[in-house]
Amino acid sequence: MQAAFDEIAASVDQDGRLYGAGYRGDLWTAFCQTVDFGRLADLLDAPGSFMRRPSQRIPDEDTNEDELGKAVPEHVIRQLDTQLVSLGTGVTYGIMDPAHVRAMFQTAYVVLRDSGRRPLEVVSLPRNCLERERDEVSLIWNNHKGRRMRRRLPITSSTVAAIAKWQALRDTLPDTPSVSEPYLFPAITSVGGSDHLMSNNFSAGMRAWVDNLETVNSDAMDAEGNVIPFDRSLIYPYAFRHSFAQRHADAGTPIDVLRDLMDHDDPKTTMGYYRVSLERKRKAVKTLSLMVTDRSGTATPCSSTAYEQRSVAVPFGGCTEPTNVKAGGHACPIRFQCSGCGFYRPDPSYLPAIEDHANSLRADREKARAMDAACFVIDNLTAQITSYEDVATKMRERMAALPENERAELEDAAAVLRRVRAGGEHKLLPLTVVSKAGR
Ligand code: SF4
Q1: Every domain of the chain and the residues it spans
Q2: Model confidence pLDDT, tens digit, residues 168-177
Q3: From 334, 347, 391, mutation site for ligand 1 pocket: most ligand atoms within 8 A of C-beta
């Protein structure tokens, strides 16, 4: 009995990965039922043989939630999106027409990507899963794991449009199994053991799609400057739930909001995503602190500590003016004319903001000219534009001189810091949880 338990508890799939706790638990239950049958039918030789011990239990852990850091990176998701049209191609699904199969798989992918629900929660969505209230549309979904049904999640208009399009198509499908009537994604057959699309079918369809895509690149390069392909085995349905959570954590969504969005039981699980964010931020600060310049574009690298603690992020760069640092960036004595200030410390993560600001200064100068403003107003604007242009040009030249892989790393770090700053000021993903059903 112990040998059978040990074998099942450690059983792995064909890629050598431990099966999920649920699946191993099911195997163990089936084995025990077989033994019970043997006992009832008087087929076991010795009475008391094959006794089950309390310690022989597969822990009901949610290993998936523990796989923090397994998120599909956003740049990989963008590549998948551009090739979405082929998802579902070649998949046989009962008597469903191939075009409908593709539409169903592609809709399920969009919901998975945009909602962060678990794969089972996506494939078992109710047919009428959209609830409209004034301008807001919520996804109605069931948390099977937590046994909390009819949860509501605000979703964006593009996700709503994808679901609505499939719903319209779903209504025209001939001969879907009658057991699937209440579900958005019908089962393959009425005798397949599931009333809706099964997670396994969806996973298999995604696996085939991902494996056959022409290119899926990582953001890293080898020594020759060639882009390294992304490891496709890391793209699987559950990983999109991690991507959703990581996206929010990176954007600074408050932890209690993210916990509600994820419907986590334990706040520690939610916290894990912020630890990943912090780790990324730390790495990004280390990279960018070496690229800090002064207002004239001359390199003035600093330590990570100085970058974070002895300066404050103002709109177009770092500021080291002590009073302003103490006030969190709200006490600039010269009205944020940073490009003319000795305390200004920009780095490449501010390049888009610098360029945007130079553009808006140019627009202001045009307006000032049209208003027949005094020369000193025009001159001041011109001087600011020129100095911002100088600092941006020098920064770009320094970046262009870096080897390709270092430049890619720098751009990635700059994007991380921009996201962190954006999250600190305002939420990029302004979702709030509507919970009418209660927990
Ligand atoms: S103008 Fe100088 S003091 Fe003011 S925010 Fe910019 S860098 Fe800081």
Answers
A1: 2-62, 67-272, 276-438
A2: 999 999 889 9
A3: 334
